[in-house]
Amino acid sequence: MNGSRKLSPQEIADSLRDRIRAGDLRAGDRLPTQAELAEEFGVERGTVRQALRALQEDGLLSNISKGSPPRIAEAAPTAGGPRPTMVGLAPRLVEAFGARHVRIDAACLTAETLMLALGEPVRLIHEGRLSPESIDVRLLLPSRDINLAFPVSVEAREDGEDPVHRRWLEMRNAQGHVLRHNLKSLRTSHGIDVRVSFRALPFTPPMKLYLLNGTEALIAYYMIMRREETGDGGTLDMYDALGSASLLFSFEERAGQRDAAFVEQSQKWFDGLWETITTDLTLS
């Protein structure tokens, strides 16, 4: 109940969606009847029906028939299997930003893909279609002081200077600044409590990992290749990985015991690194 103000269908749908994400309502569970939901939320049945239609359109409800309470749908497999990170990450972030309190943890080589993918949920917040109360983003990125396994020049220079490392460092810092600015601007424009933190890894991550609200883990392996890139400083011949094209595999807590264990262990792995061998990272 919300005092004398009647809840909207969207608010009721959001409340039920939060229960599904939290595991209070699991796949196969029946929802209460429309009459019971109407009494719980203090609204008319028509308002409840609109909320249920919204959840049905999101694929969260199944077995919807007249006079029978719907069931929570089984987690649908990703259409077409794993997709390139640049394609697959944004819709998963949009789903994660539907929560009241958003937590995104990421371990990657640079913040490029995450920076770009966050543009979609940020846009929806500005349109009023998403309204989280808080956003907490933590990023683990390689330290500037280590010898990266990749990207790295194919031929080592005698003077020890590696233009590929310099290029990577400039990208890491610039993308981190943009990501932090875009998120923190939501504090001013929408009053959202935003925190963005960085820590430096003492090694080159062989894969990228995204953890969404502690309930989903997305992982993509960096595929190393030799490539050339031409810029103002000339041509760089390097061993590198195109992270945006790496296939992104999703593991969801609600998808079963195996996936839930993977999500849990991935979160422990990230938290362990964050709290132990990583160091403060300052973007120059």
Integer count of domains: 2
Which sheet architecture does the biggest sheet show? 8 strands, mixed
Structural class of the secondary structure composition?
alpha+beta
Instruction: Output the CATH topology of the largest domain.
Output: Endonuclease, Chain A
Strands of the widest sheet, in order across it, are 3-12-9-8-4-5-7-13
How many beta-strand segments? 13
Topology pattern, helix = H, strand = E:
HHHEEEHEHHEEHEEEEEEHE
Instruction: Supply the number of helical segments.
Output: 8
Measured distance between first and last alpha carbons: 49 Å
The CATH architecture of the largest domain can be given as 2-Layer Sandwich
CATH class of the largest domain: Alpha Beta
Computed CA radius of gyration, to the nearest angstrom: 22 Å
SSE topology sketch:
Blueprint lengths: L8 H14 L11 H8 L3 H13 L3 E2 L8 E2 L10 E2 H12 L4 E7 L4 H6 L1 H8 L7 E9 L9 E2 L9 H28 L2 E9 L5 E6 L3 E6 L2 E8 L2 E8 L5 E6 L4 H19 L3 E2 L4
Helix pairs in contact: 1-3, 2-3, 4-6, 6-7
Can you give a write-up of this model?
The chain is α+β, with helices and mostly antiparallel strands. The protein folds into 2 domains: 9-72, Winged helix-like DNA-binding domain superfamily/Winged helix DNA-binding domain (Arc Repressor Mutant, subunit A, Orthogonal Bundle); 83-280, Endonuclease, Chain A, CATH 3.30.870. Helix content is 38%, strand content 24%. It contains 8 helices and 13 strands. The protein has helices at residues 9-22, 34-41, 45-57, 85-96, 112-117, 119-126, 163-190, 257-275; strands spanning 61-62, 71-72, 83-84, 101-107, 134-142, 152-153, 193-201, 207-212, 216-221, 224-231, 234-241, 247-252, 279-280. Strands 3-12-9-8-4-5-7-13 form an 8-stranded mixed sheet, sandwiched between helices. It has a 3-stranded antiparallel sheet with strand order 6-11-10, with helices on one face. A two-stranded antiparallel ribbon has the order 1-2. The longest helix is centred in the middle third of the chain and has 28 residues, at 163-190. The radius of gyration is 22 Å and the shape is elongated. Mean pLDDT is 88; it is low at 76-80.
